[in-house]
What does this fold into?
Amino acid sequence: MPRRVLVFDVNETLLDLTALDPEFERAFGTASARVQWFQAMLSSAFLATITGRYASFGDHGRAALRQTAERLRVALSADAERAILGKMRELPPHPEVRGALESLRAAGFRLAALTNSTEEVERAQLQNAGLADLFEVALSADTVKQLKPAPEPYRMAAERLAVGVGDVRLVAAHLWDVAGALAAGCAAAFVARPGALWNELVPKPDVWGVDMTEVARQIRERDA
It folds into this structure.
């Protein structure tokens, strides 16, 4: 059988969000606000997806910043808001990511990226991280106006890559992304980065590793 097409989430899976910590330290007085902000952004995005009121992931990020500032009773300046959102385009990759992706390319796999961010932000992220050359195509859920983990982005990825949904393996460091991909009919792989927890009510994917190197090794063994 042909190798599965590998589709990678971007933020946290490939790129290191801890690079935002200095900006959050300056704006909020604590780097821990970054975790609160990201969870608030996901909550906002999920709520919009469930209720059918689409907004771009960037808009959710901006709204979550203001919500986090209100929760922490911080006066967030417009300059600080712009600095944090701008830094999202300049995140570095996790150290092992490029080598792992190159090993998969060398093994004959097709690679694509799929993010909730807009295509403009995604292109800037991958270019600035030095990863853009590794992907056949960079895809955005914004195209179908439905954010992951709704099924439409995963189905769109399969259609754009001219394969069946079952021939896609989604690779992500988020339980919700993996769960969405599995529900849409894809295979999946979970990158269990530090602090990542699994929900026992969600079926586990057949590939599971502590970093991208381990995940890539398992994919080469299972899908090649």
